[in-house]
Amino acid sequence: MTSTRRLSQQQTFLHTQEEQISIEQPPRLSVILCTYNRRNLVLSTLASLRRQTLATSLYEIIVVDNGSNDGTFEAVRTYVHSGDARRSPHEHWQVHCYAEPKPGLAQARTMGLGIASGEFVVFIDDDVLADSRFLEYLLRAYDSTGADAIGGRVTLHWEAPRPRWLSDVLLGSAPSNGSGKIVARTAPDEEIYSGYPERSGETAPGPLGYFHPFPTRIELPESIHFSNSCFSVKITALRRAGGFSPLLNTRTDRATGMEVEDLCQRLRKAGYRLWYEPYAMVTHRVPASCLRRAFFLHHAYNYGRAEIYRQYTNCDRARTLDEFSARPLLKTIVNNTRSALFFTLIRRPLLLLRGKSASERLQERLIQARRWGRIVQQIRFLEHVPTYTINPTVLFVHARELDAATHLQLQALQTQRVHCQSSGPHISLFWLWRHRAQQGQAYAIVHFHHPGRFITNYWHYQRYWFLLRLIQQFGLRVVMTDSGGWWYSERHLRFLPQRTFEHMLCYRSDLIITHVRHPEQFYADKTLHRRISSLPHPGFHGYYPPGLKRAEARHQLGLPADTSFVYLCLASYHTEHELLQLIDAYTAIPSLSHRTLPDAPMPQLLLIGMPRDKKQPQLFWQRAALHSTIHLCLQAHEDELALSLGAVDAVVLPHFAVPTAGILEEALLALSYKRCVIAPKLPRFTDILSETCSILYDPASCANLTAAMIRATSQSCQLQLHDVRALEASSGWQAYARRLHQLYKGLLIRPQ
């Protein structure tokens, strides 16, 4: 008897130890229950979760109160902690209560997702009752299928008699033949009412949340998505897919469950597998207020509006933003209005005359309501775009010529889910009006890239001065990229508007993007320092084609075969005075000025492009024509860079001693082709260029430039590993866009 009692005590002790160990381990399921002003309903849902057969150590419950004002939060906390002292350790359940004051189901779910510690996250509504084995069957399905997301079965509990006009089609249930294939229905205009699908043959949970497409466990086809009332996702997959879009589900009349459909599409696009488990079942309560035709029509109308929102939040921004510009949007509105009027004035009376049933007529009215919802939302987009602060909306204003840096930056921003629309120097007033601030909160950004290139005369300056005043009046944020320009090196009054405009834009910008290493030394005015953000300029390696072999490139350019050294200068980045200084420094090289051997190989100077400050640089042409070793190529094409840079040994950047002069892109382009760079000691180049592949000279001395050119003939370009990685175009511009994306978001949440 004593030995039996000792054995029982040992078993009890071991069992208690196992329970303590299991409780210390993180749960496998995190059930997120969001609620708003449904105190009695959410308590019933919690009671059903309390009766789960799954061990309490395997799941946790996160209740998020989304700003209720009926005492829901206090009632939930009281219910959760009631009777804790009387429960045994294995009966304690893990429940966390939080409050999210920001309205919106997506906001509440995102908060719960950030707190969840389980492997899988389960979302259920606050007006459902979970079956006692709901979580048990759900966890078994994950273990046996290896699925990334599983949707459960949703049945209905009628709190009022079901109307006769409410057919199974209106419930949104898709008929199946048992083999996993959906039996497609046909309907007028190739649309059916089965949860307001987008194409014929699709199905979706209906307004009441009913979801039972198959009798057995099956991997869901692409035409079916989960019910908003009950679904679960692997937490890593959900975070990689981007979570929930707050624009598709807020506490407004747009809440139609569209965000779950959008999430399913993003999960499938990322390669994740979605399954259906019929034994993981919840019951959705249907009150009498939902059993009216007006409820179904209102839901269909809001579903049409949500479809337009989903198009706006699509990741394919290059196509989608064009569709939401003025002309395509007006054309779409006209076509949809014509179709909706045909439904109202012709098709609906014909259905009544043909004696169709009430259910069939209601289906037609639902399709019509959905179309009117799309039309109304498109009209609202003409007046104002949606306020979407998670991914900023940016108007990227650039010069008429789209250079490589601008093109790469636009591509990288689109991969970062930034709603970026490129614009030439002519800014659309309609775009500014549609993206104006609301209630003192800015939602859009106007980013000026190389703004000095926009100004060519005094009238352009006056136009942009007016646009800047208008942008600030509309409450938009202003960002400027200061990358320098040839107009800084030219002191002529003809180029004063360029310098004045950039100076004015610096003081009117909310953020200044610069590429200098020490911006506090570059900008003398200390009032600008708090607006400046220094980002390293990426390289161009991999964007342009690789350089040709040196001998072949020189042969194609007509350079002498016995050339000892070739210098290159991209004249389009410089002024005529800078190029004249380069010619003076080049002709002062001893091997050119004092030739001792007539047949000795001589260096060559290749000038590509035309100086920007003069249309007819007569003096530049005359000085270059006096020397047989200077070669001119008046037309500069990007597709010929591989030929030009393949033939040369060093790239020269002739600048005067102007602190703001210089363009870093020219030097990085040369380094991307592993060519030596001869650059001035100016802030735009100091501590940025690789020491092993660059030679810095004193821009105040022409003789110092000559000495640097002589020194380059004996220096080989050997890039370090970290320099090569920094010059990669694909990875470099992606990292640049990520940092710029964070700056955009920080700028929008900053108070004006």
Which sheet architecture does the biggest sheet show? 9 strands, mixed
Number of helices: 26
- Percent in strands: 15-25%
Instruction: Report the principal-axis shape.
Output: elongated
In terms of per-residue confidence, which ranges show pLDDT below 50 for 5 or more consecutive residues?
1-23, 174-194, 196-203, 315-322
Radius of gyration: 34 Å
Helix share, percent: 40-55%
Separation of the first and last Cα atoms: 80 Å
Structural class: alpha/beta
DSSP strand tally:
21
Mean of residue pLDDT values: 81
Task: Walk me through the topology.
Layout: H1 2-24, E1 29-35, H2 39-50, E2 59-65, H3 72-81, E3 94-99, H4 105-115, E4 120-124, E5 128-130, H5 134-145, E6 149-158, H6 168-171, E7 218-219, E8 230-234, H7 235-240, H8 258-269, E9 274-286, H9 293-312, H10 317-323, H11 326-353, H12 358-383, E10 393-397, H13 404-415, E11 419-423, H14 429-434, E12 444-449, H15 458-473, E13 477-482, H16 496-508, E14 511-514, H17 519-522, E15 532-534, H18 550-557, E16 566-570, H19 576-587, H20 590-593, E17 604-608, H21 618-625, E18 630-633, H22 641-647, E19 650-652, H23 664-672, E20 676-680, E21 694-697, H24 702-712, H25 721-726, H26 729-749
Parallel strand pairs: 1-2, 1-4, 2-3, 6-9, 10-11, 10-12, 12-13, 13-14, 14-15, 16-17, 16-19, 17-18, 19-20, 20-21
Antiparallel strand pairs: 4-8, 5-9, 6-8, 7-9
Helix pairs in contact: 2-3, 9-12, 11-12, 13-26, 15-16, 18-22, 19-21, 19-24
